Amino acid sequence: MTAASPPAAPAPDRFRPGAAQWGLLFSNFLMWGGFFAVVPLITVHFVSDLGWAAASVGLVLALRQLTQQGLTVFGGAWSDVVGPKPLILLGCLLRAAGFAWMGFTTTLPLLLAAALLAGIGGGLFDAPKNAAVTAVTPDRQRTRMFSVMSIAGNLGMVTGPLIGALLIGLGFRTAAVAAGSVYVLAAAVLAATLPHTRPAPGQTPPGLSGLWAAARDRRFRRFTLVLIGYFMLSTQLNVIVTLKAVALAGKAATGPLYALSAGMAVLLQYPLLRVVDRHLPTRTALVTAVLLVATALGLMAFASSFPALLACVALYSLGSMIVYPSQQTLTARFAPRALIGSYFGFSAISLGLGGAIGNVIGGTLLDAGTRLGFPALPWAVLFVVGLLTAQGLRWALRGLHEEGEEDEAPAQEGAR
User: Fold this and answer.
1) Which membrane topology describes this protein (predicted)?
2) Positive or negative, the Cα torsion across 62, 83, 28, 183?
């Protein structure tokens, strides 16, 4: 990205991550693969197989999302105190237990409890993982590293649903246990490769005061809150988009659906970001990406065949693959060096609230549209949410360049 990005990163052939970076990349692949091997099947298993209401399963997914992102707010601050590594390892093990437990649940309260445990695990490793990427990556390579992390995650997103689709033939329990086991492997990889970084000698750990500093950062605060709207849209791939795909093409549709979305990101994200980097400021790229996602969801109302739905998912994916590195890079740039974990933690508010609302409202609107005989209802509402979010981002990022968009983090620290 232009104005808001770190200085230009080296050419790809000079980008040679060390052991810690390779460990983070591989573990990110495993985490995303394990997540998408089971999460799409939760909706399919409990709604399509067991006949639960879509809103009930949406509540479960919302609880996991809200728990994870709510705890991530504090997980980032804790990582500034104890270092990212111990929190990431504990989080992986708790996520493994939560996913495995889901395979043995037969009632809504037990499924909610398993989702809560999985969410706690995610809350412990989410922001610390981003803080670890920042800690082991030089400033000039940071945008590139976040982009490559996204590609590794999307490789997991490609393979996870395909493996999950194969495992579901052996039963949801087998798929859930296998997905949990992947997180144990990710923990082992990071235990062997990730250094245990701590605050510099003589530097007082900020603790929860780091969160307060992030909350008082007016520009960063409004940026984070407006992004709630985007994350209401981004969660729909796991909820109503998956349900529409199953309705159009059966349970096997989950594999191609996620494979297309993630496969496009693997193949196109890096070259797409290079093109966007040359031609668009970060804030313009972010607003455009949100508009693409909103448009794709709106068009899904008219998709009457699985290929038509996949075409909409392709447009959705083009927007989504720009949002993640843009948001992460801006967050790292906003943060004073000693408060990186706290800023990443505070940024989780947008994903936590947006994801929770999105999971609930997606299933609820789908059920309401069915009752009212208006199946386009959820897609129309989401399209409007996307338009409002794009306009909100234009407002939230207004004046970014004038306020020192290209300044280094330490300079920003002094300005706050």
Assistant:
1) Multi-pass membrane protein
2) negative
